[in-house]
Amino acid sequence: MRPQRLSDVVGQQHLVGPGKIIARMVAAKLLSSMILYGPPGTGKTSIASAIAGSTKYAFRKLNAATDSKKDLQIVAEEAKMSGTVILLLDEIHRLDKTKQDFLLPHLESGRIILIGATTENPYININPAIRSRTQIFEVKPLTLTDIETALERALTDPERGLGKLPIKLDDDAKRFMADATNGDLRSALNGLELAAQSTPPAEDGTIHITQAIAEECFQRKAIAGDKNGDAHYDVISAFQKSIRGSDTDAALHYLAQLVAAGDLPIICRRLMVIAYEDVGLANPPAASRTVQAVQAAQQLGLPEGRIPLANAVIELCLSPKSNSAMVAMDAALTDVNAGHNGAVPDHLKDAHYAGAKKLGHGNDYKYPHNFPNDWVKQDYLPAGLKGSEYYQPKMNGRFETQLAEQYHRLRKANQ
Fold first, then answer.
1. Which domains are present in the chain?
2. What's the predicted TM-score (pTM) here?
């Protein structure tokens, strides 16, 4: 089911959709080397394959960890003969210096268009010499809708998919396959193929794939016996709302359901959202400890990861709550999105260049550290937004109570 054209790619529309950067590069026939990074099974190889199919260039795949310099030399020779070769180099973060030094001149000449694929952060794990010669694009986890779309394509495609088989895939089984793989399309397609090949046909010849069969193929149970695809999201919703409502026992119950389902990525993401959205400034150390608990759980994996997760859930439940930071940010965004930006006051504009003084930029800026208590009365908001008050403090914890007192004191002094 590997895409042959950009229009076949599932998801990643921020890169390959109409008018987006990779689509524009292909349309203009101005390809440059790039690095695609993101989780496994999200479309890095698919994008490379689709680019090659859309441009008709030769397409070769190598692995930076297991293939040798000699394999790179073969690709380079082919590029000399044919003009241009698109090389997908998987695990590019493991490219050693010898292979890198061989590859660099060919990238600069344009004979090889490199598409590096990695699950690692390229800004940390890829040599700067490679980074400086490539565009870096993030490939994001696929949504449930993306994966369901790909499963439907696989079921109906008679040439590259399972379209020649009389398969009936129940809606709840399809939803489970999409959900159980946490955005990994490769795993979803592998699971569908296993289910199709291992399920004996019924008397009428139909291969009927139920949710029970899907659970068996993925070796994972749906949350709370989910039969309609909604229970999964109901449990996640109940988990957050129980913590927000300070019900420790209910929160632990829903955590147990998520742990039993093996949904560690969802638990971790949701806990960090809760820590900053619902507890926030009422208890900032709880947010820091939640991040530490999440990191520990990710290192440990399940089932051991349930222990730091339980610590975080109990603390978040019993902590004072405040959503004031989120509300303040959303209020500021409302103004910005409504076009109420206003011009930056002249005294705050960048003055670190020749001619800034003539423009009046930075001339009247008062440097707070030159004044008593490192503060001086001065306007910071654009003129049209002067007096705007986005932050509405709450008094649910000692820390935010102190912030509120300082906030109101500073506002009064600046009037």
1. 6-138 (3.40.50.300), 144-220 (1.10.8.60), 231-318 (1.20.272.10), 324-413 (1.10.3710.10)
2. 0.53
